[in-house]
Design brief:
Distance between the termini: 67 Å
CATH superfamily of the largest domain: Cysteine proteinases
Helix content: 40-55%
CATH topology of the largest domain: Cathepsin B, Chain A
Largest sheet: 12 strands, mixed
Number of helices: 18
Number of domains: 2
């Protein structure tokens, strides 16, 4: 080895030693490490130009790929729908999506105009049922310590306006539906944040009272069941206050109403008096709790298994969220079969990823963050799920697919952000985007292959309610 190589080797060894010595023994950023980071930044002319641009321009604007050809809006198969709904500043996408699936069927079957079910009506009972779910869960966990993770989760999440399809199915089958003209939207139904804060704080206070009462109860009353009965009676009194708040904010749900049906030409067809249940039975009549299957594409968990999320339901005496985990290609088979038969589906995805809000296009080629930042973003779908980088955030109605040589190239969903949002109130997604950011689909059993239906006989794997993959869709 010549002298030059010896000197270089010694210098490299000294540099490695210096770096090792520079490391803060507690893992902090030492002055030496900071110096290394500063000298590592080259500050090229390109960096300066990008930095100047980012000082006044959003990252997404600069990352948007220029010169992308407009998306073709032709679809091989499209479900017949009319009108677009708007959830405004609320987290009720799950409710709008579920009702939009039923709405499309009713409009087609009875040749209606732009008809809507009342979201406010079912949202009233959703909030009442969730309040009861929380209070009863506090009673059920009365013997657990306050610092137990389940108790902590309950107090952290007493009530919310997000949800998923089992909320739709349980609420509709229990309370029926009414037209939007019978119970219209209110400001607080459309803008739920302030009402949610007040309901949450009241429920937390009530939950503390129930736990305190149990802890201070006479042991004889505990043994005889008198103390538990007292908690249950007190819960009913608490719910009366919740009911009053909901009436003040959302309105008083009707027990009976008169409704005139008009056809698509505006001609009156019939006028009759209904209850919410009889209205549903007359015009829809489906058994939502037993006629649908929720499937999911979560590559972080084993495929072909059935999973159930504890406490992930809207109604205490209803059903937890149960789903079959499947490869995305199996889910596409069912989705295509349903759309071909003019049947929309409840669908959820990570809607914020690579979305062009102006055009309503969801495509992983819409934005190039790697070139802008000079780094790579290389995680696959499984890795994004495991690291909390991706998860289902929004529910819509899947209504169209475009096929080429029998394979899907793009999909379209009916959104609930109003007619002016996206493409005529819809979002269009490429099949590549579908693979990466689609998570859940609810499909009628008649479109589900026999082998997948057979999976439902499995004993579900129980997952905790705080699993980040199962946050309510908003």
């Amino acid at each position: 080895m010549n002298m030059r190589k010896i000197i270089l080797a010694a210098a490299a060894a000294l540099a490695m030693t210096a770096m090792a010595n520079a490391q803060d023994p507690k893992g902090g950023l030492s002055p030496e490490i900071l110096s290394e980071l500063r000298t590592g930044y080259q500050g090229t002319a390109a960096d300066k130009a990008i930095r100047n641009a980012l000082n006044t321009t959003p990252i997404g604007t600069l990352a948007q790929v220029a010169g992308v050809s407009p998306m073709d809006t032709h679809f091989t198969y499209e479900v017949k729908t009319k009108g677009r709904t708007n959830q405004l500043q609320s987290g009720r996408c799950w409710l709008f999506s579920g009702l939009n699936v039923l709405r499309a069927k009713m409009i087609d079957k009875y040749d209606l105009g732009d008809f809507q079910f009342s979201q406010a009506y079912l949202f009233f009972y959703d909030q009442l049922e969730k309040a009861n779910l929380f209070l009863q869960a506090i009673i059920d966990t009365r013997d657990l310590p306050f610092e137990d993770r389940k108790v902590d989760w309950l107090f952290h999440n007493p009530i919310g306006d997000g949800g998923q399809f089992t909320g739709v199915s349980n609420l509709v089958m229990k309370y029926g539906v009414v037209p939007s003209t019978v119970m219209p939207e209110t400001l607080n139904a459309n803008n739920t944040s302030q009402m949610r804060v007040q309901l949450s704080n009241k429920l937390r206070e009530d939950g503390l009272e129930l736990r305190t009462a149990w802890q201070g109860a006479d042991r004889k009353d505990v043994k005889s069941g008198k103390a538990l009965k007292a908690l249950e009676d007190r819960k009913v009194e608490m719910l009366k206050e919740i009911y009053r708040i909901l009436v003040l904010c959302i309105g008083n749900p009707p027990a009976e109403f008169e409704w005139t049906r008009y056809d698509s030409k505006g001609q009156a067809v019939s006028t009759a008096t209904y209850t919410p249940k009889s209205f549903y039975d007359t015009f829809v009549g489906e058994d939502l709790e037993h006629n649908y299957v929720m499937v999911m594409n979560d590559p972080a968990r084993e495929y072909g298994k059935v999973y159930e999320i504890e406490y992930d339901r809207h109604v205490y005496d209803g059903e937890n969220w149960v789903y079959v985990n499947l490869p995305v290609e199996r889910i596409k088979e069912m989705a295509i079969a349903s759309i071909k038969d003019n049947t929309a589906m409840y669908f959820s995805c990570d809607v914020g990823k690579f979305m062009d809000r102006k055009t309503g296009i969801l495509d992983i080629d819409n934005y190039d963050y790697e070139s802008l930042m000079g780094v790579t973003f290389g995680m696959d779908k499984k890795q994004r799920v495991l690291t909390h980088a991706s998860g289902s955030s929004h529910a819509m109605s899947l209504i169209a697919v475009d096929l080429k040589d029998g394979k899907p190239v793009k999909w379209m969903v009916e959104n609930s952000w109003g007619e002016a949002s996206g493409y005529k109130g819809n979002l269009i997604m490429t099949d590549r985007w579908f693979d990466e950011y689609m998570f859940r689909l609810v499909v009628e059993k008649k479109y589900v292959p026999a082998d997948i239906l057979g999976m439902l006989s499995q004993e579900p794997v129980i997952l905790p309610p705080w699993d980040p993959m199962f946050l309510p869709e908003e």
